Amino acid sequence: MFKQPPQDPGDSELKVREPAHHAAGVPAVLSALRHGVREMGPVRTARTLARLNQSHGFDCMGCAWPDPDKRHHAEFCENGAKAVAEEATRFRADRAFFAQWSVEEIAAQSDFWIGKRGRLTEPMYLAPGATHYEPITWDAAYGVIGDELAALGSPDEATFYTSGRTSNEAAFAYQAFVRAFGTNNLPDCSNMCHESSGVALNRTVGIGKGSVTLEDVERADLLLVIGQNPGTNHPRMLSALEAAKARGAKVVSINPLREAGLSRFDNPQKLKGLVGRGTRLADLHLSIRINGDMALFQAVNRRLLERDAVDHAFIERHCGGFEALRTHLLSGTPVDVSAATGLDDAEVEALTELIAGSERTIACWAMGLTQHRNSVATIQEIVNTMLLRGMIGKPGAGLCPVRGHSNVQGDRTMGIWERPTDAFLDRLQGALGFAPPRAHGLDVVESIKAMRDGRVKVFVAMGGNFLSAAPDTGATAEALRRCRLTVHVATKPNRSHVTHGAHALLLPTLGRTERDVRGGHEQRVSVEDSMSAVHGSRGRLAPASDQLRSEVAIVCELAERVLGDRVAVPWRAWADEYDLIRDAIARAIPGFEDFNTRLDAGFTLPSPPRDELRFTTASGRAELTVNEFEPVEVAEGRLLLQTLRSHDQYNTTIYGLNDRYRGIKAGRRVVLLNPADIDALGLQESAIVDLVGDGGRRAARFRVVPYDTPRGCAAAYYPETNALVPLDSVADGSGTPTSKSVVIRVEPAQHSA
Ligand SMILES: Nc1nc2c(c(=O)[nH]1)N[C@H]1C(S)=C(S)[C@@H](COP(=O)(O)OP(=O)(O)OC[C@H]3O[C@@H](n4cnc5c(=O)[nH]c(N)nc54)[C@H](O)[C@@H]3O)O[C@H]1N2
Ligand SMILES: Nc1nc2c(c(=O)[nH]1)N[C@H]1C(S)=C(S)[C@@H](COP(=O)(O)OP(=O)(O)OC[C@H]3O[C@@H](n4cnc5c(=O)[nH]c(N)nc54)[C@H](O)[C@@H]3O)O[C@H]1N2
Ligand SMILES: [Mo]
Questions:
Q1: Which residues pair with 265 in a beta bridge?
Q2: In this structure, which long-range contacts are made by residues 594-599, counting pairs with CB atoms below 8 Å and at least 24 apart in sequence?
Q3: Which of 1, 113, 272, 702 fits a 20 to 30 Å CA distance from 499?
Q4: Does residue 151 fall inside a structural domain?
Q5: Spacing of C-alpha 173 from chain mean position
Q6: Pair 280, 267: CB distance under 8 Å
Q7: Which domain holds residue 732?
Q8: Can you tell me the distance from the alpha carbon of 609 to that of 392, in angstroms, rounded to the nearest whole number?
Q9: What are the tens digits of pLDDT across the range 310-336?
Q10: Which of 378, 69, 77, 79 is closest to 226 using CA atoms?
Q11: Where do the segments described as Disordered lie (predicted)?
């Protein structure tokens, strides 16, 4: 009954329709079931989806939005279901697959095709000069890594990447291994994701995380959704917004695009949502120009000051920097707000009115804010708004960076960070008994440059798809190819696996849906969601192959092989009993006291601003900041391109080729443009064009689609457009690639298909 995995359709099958105004509802349920049955078959689909996000099941790896306490029978989310189907697939990329296909042949296929080959089943090795990956034993694989690491001139010549699905236990063990080996080179997907949020929040409120819980969302009277597409990327957030609206809360969306879920939402949880008209979520939509957010919030803050709609008592008690901010906004050089934002005075006023009139405001944001050159300053300006209104540390109000990967926040809490604080390292030393290195390590972009320049020779990845996720695909490929050894711990094959160093290893691991038996019994792991709630996760499915090992086991076995008894960490015991790792976490990381016991019920980590209105900045106060607005220069005839996700992908994993809400079918190489820009550039609807960045970077053959987006703003999917993102263009202060403001021009396609 299982057919072949799906193949790519030809270019000519791409279809464009009117964008949808509704999100979810019946089409969402059907789409999830179709993906489920295609990947898993009907029985497994039913059994697996029933376990998703239930209190004794596994944590959904779809996104980091928290789970409500009272679960629906199945907290249904189309894209969560697709994420699960993708992992629980019956297809296998086994030794026969790698014998049939050379590395070069695999690399010539699309990301969609590569991902659809299915799960890796055993360790595979690509020997120097070889054309095909071949099976290798676990022991021999660890030996290859151990020998290459031992041959390095310094531990800093290796870099250890982490994607954001890795559990707390695996992440803690991994960073302990890397630091015991002797380096802080721990880049992670966060460097490309919410790093700007972390930096801005650390500076202003003293902790790089959000300050709200799900209960706050339920109590808010105003929710700002800025630079985020929850209908696709955090679908369960729509249920929370819907509940807030039912109690009379207002929702504002600030986005160059009118994303479907925010205009109308048919809750698939409720019969009403399946048959009825759904809820109109956004009361106000501001079609902002790409990168206009800082100018917008500065204008709002100026208006709040002018009409004295600020919370003086709060500012006096808790904030620093008020006078400087007031002087800057009221007497500094005025910014041309309408040029920067594309919004008119009435729109800015409407937003100001809502903010001034709200007693409980929550600001939510995601990649639309974090991936620009001025991202840190932009987020700081939004923190200014919230502090001026006293919107931190009270119920129903606060800051809510909505995280991406399901455990990206937990991985950082566990110490996956190239710039650890001394306080963190001191505690780690106390808990594990060895002296970790103190010099800061390399982030993602710095790692790419170091590999390119030959300063880093070994690349190890705990999950993810470094090549396709990183900027400047061409430069990153060259960097990986210069390595002595590249190693990936992964569930499924991807493009990074076929863009390799002199030799390469693929180490297949258990996914979150799968039973993890070690030391004679089932182990559980833990994750932290976007609102700092920690809970357990236990896989229920039989593993895709009996050769798979858990990430925890792989890390600990590798550490034992590489480090011998250089440090006194009981790696072997950790590999067989994750409770022991949790005991070490409890000693090393504040907030995890009595971890094993408290994990049964789950718990929320402390947040000084949220819980006690305490700010752990240098001054002990929340900092209002002065931010200088500098627009991105876009020359005549150029466009500002944002690279974003379709409804049918998980980052670089392509579930399918449709973007239902935006009306795109059976293809991904589209560029969405304002109709007036299409005219002005002398293009035609449906023309095939190349997108060309600075320095001649080119992404070939995109279909022009007229779309409701401000003048001068283009949108196209990631990772097809990553070739255009310059390696040297990163956010000031956070180093995040500027994937949402890439300057491009559009040219007639050079090559035919
Ligand atoms: N199904 C699914 N779920 C996912 C993911 C996935 O790929 N698929 N990825 C996960 C990850 S790792 C992450 S980080 C999150 C990402 O979640 P999102 O941040 O929602 O993802 P993007 O598709 O990058 O969407 C960015 C949004 O910002 C808007 N935007 C772009 N530029 C600007 C700007 O300058 N200003 C404003 N105000 N808006 C702007 C875009 O129009 C778009 O709506 O989702 C997570 N969840
Ligand atoms: N142009 C552009 N680039 C971007 C972005 C953008 O918006 N625009 N977004 C950025 C963001 S927000 C992020 S978070 C990064 C994402 O960057 P990554 O996290 O590196 O990429 P993913 O596509 O999520 O990784 C998918 C791979 O992870 C592996 N995998 C899946 N599950 C598991 C597991 O349980 N364990 C292990 N070991 N491996 C597993 C599979 O092999 C799969 O192929 O991309 C960034 N890049
Ligand atoms: Mo992300």
A1: 23, 279
A2: 595/526, 599/524, 599/526, 599/534, 599/535, 599/536
A3: 702
A4: yes
A5: 22
A6: no
A7: 639-748
A8: 7
A9: 999 999 999 999 999 999 999 988 889
A10: 378
A11: 517-542
Distance 95 CA to ligand 1 centre (A): 36
Same domain, 411 and 431: yes
Inside any domain, residue 557: yes
Instruction: From residue 209, give the alpha-carbon distance in Å to each of 200, 205, 389, 464, 546.
Output: 10, 9, 20, 22, 38
- Within 307-362, residue ranges assigned H as helices are 312-318, 322-331, 337-341, 345-357
Domain match, 251 and 309 both: yes
Joined tokens for residue 331: 């007497």
CA distance 231 to 262: 7
Q: Tell me, yes or no, whether 1 lies in a domain.
A: no
Q: pTM to 2 decimals?
A: 0.95
Atom of ligand 1 minimally distant from the CA of 405: 12
Which pLDDT band, with edges at 50, 70 and 90, does 2 fall under? very low
| Residue whose pair of structure tokens reads 């003293």 in the numeric block | 206
Q: Please say whether the dihedral angle defined by the alpha carbons of residues 79, 646, 284 and 200, taken in this order, is positive or negative.
A: positive
Length, in residues, of the chain: 753
562: tokens are 């590489």
Question: What is the CB neighbour count within 10 angstroms for residue 2?
Answer: 11
> Looking at residue 425, which CATH number applies to its domain?
3.40.50.740
243/153 same-domain check: no
Sequence-distant (6+) residues with CB within 8 A of 299 are: 335, 337, 341, 348, 352
The CA distance from 367 to 741, in Å, is 11
Nearest one of 218, 252, 206, 247 to 392, comparing CA atoms: 206
Tell me the two tokens of residue 35.
């993906």
Amino acid (1-letter code) at residue 57: G
Are 240 and 337 within one domain? yes
Residue 608 lies in a domain: no
| Torsion sign over Cα 20, 21, 26, 31 | positive
| Ligand 1, atom 4, residue with closest C-alpha | 233
> How far is residue 278's CA from residue 267's CA, in Å, rounded to a whole number?
7
> What residues contact 587, with CB distance under 8 A and at least 6 apart?
427, 430, 431
CA separation for the pair 128, 131 (Å, rounded): 9
Per-residue burial over 556-589, b if 16 or more Cβ lie within 10 Å, else e, is bbbbbbbbeeebebebeebbbbbebbbbbbbebb
pLDDT of residue 600: 94
CA dihedral of residues 338, 341, 347, 348 (deg, nearest 10): -80
- Please enumerate in sequence order all residues whose Cβ is within 8 A of that of 465, keeping only pairs 6 or more positions apart, or say none: 163, 494, 495, 496, 651, 652, 653, 719
**Mean pLDDT, residues 567-590 taken together:** 98
To test the pocket of ligand 2, the residue of 491, 495, 549 to mutate (highest count of ligand atoms within 8 Å of its CB) is 491
3-class DSSP state of 514: strand
Classify residue 500 as exposed, middle or buried by CB count within 10 Å of its CB (0-12, 13-18, 19+). buried
Gap from CA of 66 to ligand 1 centroid (Å): 17
Residue of 66, 77, 43, 67 whose CA lies nearest to 650? 77
- Ligand 1 shell residues, CB under 6 Å: 62-63, 79, 193, 226-229, 232-234, 254-257, 259, 288, 290-291, 293, 366-368, 404-405, 642, 644-645, 649-651, 740
Residue finishing a domain among 549, 567, 599: 599
pLDDT digits 0-9 by tens, 607-640: 999 999 999 999 999 999 999 998 888 999 999 9
Task: Please give the structure tokens belonging to residue 209.
Answer: 């995380």
CA distances from 240 to 27, 31, 249, 361 (A): 20, 22, 11, 15
